Amino acid sequence: MVVNNIIPQITALGFSEYEAKAYVHLLAVQPASAYELSQASGIPSSKIYEILGRLVEKRVVFVEGEGRKKKYVGTPPEEFVESRRRFFHRTFDTLEEGLKQLSVKADDVSFIWNITEYDVLIDKAERMIEGAKESLLLSTWPDEAATLEPALSQAEARGVRIATVHFGEIKTAAGRIFEHPIEDTLFEEKGGRGFVLVTDATAAIVATITNTNRVEGAWSLNQGFITLAEDYIKHDIYIMKIVRRFDGLLHDTFGDRYHHLRDIFNDTDLA
């Protein structure tokens, strides 16, 4: 039912459930007396006057007539939405300015924040991409690449330089893409899909995502953390450039021992 879907969205704007119910049902029966609205909305008659009084104070509901002829009318939906939008914009602008005055400088921030939920990871990544001004380095797999495609395309349109290490089938076209050739091996080694994002060399996310979308990751403005994430992506790209150009020579040189190149604890002659 439409009403049941709308009420939680209105309560998310700071209204009580009864206030949301009263406004939504009033739109369908207005102009209405308090008794008529109580019957239509299911709000107890002992509460309806209090609820309507609060909505009148918030200028969401208006009164017509007096005494027994008193009727209530709700503000038009488009005006309600626009007024809430402007209210929150003003509130966020004021809040942002106030918090900036209280906060330490970004250069002094060295915290590393854990990320354990997939939706939080994607939301944070999207906001980082949307805020990127100059450069964006990304190491990702098809699922996350497809989800972030709109934000990546918009960033590229703004002139942001993008370099992506992509594991598996490529589903994005934003920026320069380097396809990693051994995604299955890496999935087994890491126990999931790796995800690394660095924007403007000032913020980074590093995470591992399992098949069930369980996340173990972190976000930080810490320069050491950022440098490690940035170097990880850059070195992957360096290696892929070399392999792309000299893969035949490497196979000829190492033969069936080619995979030993990934054995970091040995440096034997593989020829």
TrEMBL record:
Residues 112-210 form the Transcription regulator TrmB C-terminal domain. It holds the Pfam family Regulator_TrmB. One of its GO terms (biological process) is regulation of DNA-templated transcription. CDD domains: HTH_ARSR, PLDc_like_TrmB_middle. It comes from the Bacteria. InterPro entries: ArsR-like_HTH (IPR011991), TrmB-like (IPR051797), Tscrpt_reg_TrmB_C (IPR021586), Tscrpt_reg_TrmB_N (IPR002831), WH-like_DNA-bd_sf (IPR036388), WH_DNA-bd_sf (IPR036390). Residues 12-78 form the Transcription regulator TrmB N-terminal domain. PANTHER family: HTH-TYPE TRANSCRIPTIONAL REGULATOR TRMBL2. This is Sugar-specific transcriptional regulator trmb. It comes from Desulfoluna butyratoxydans.
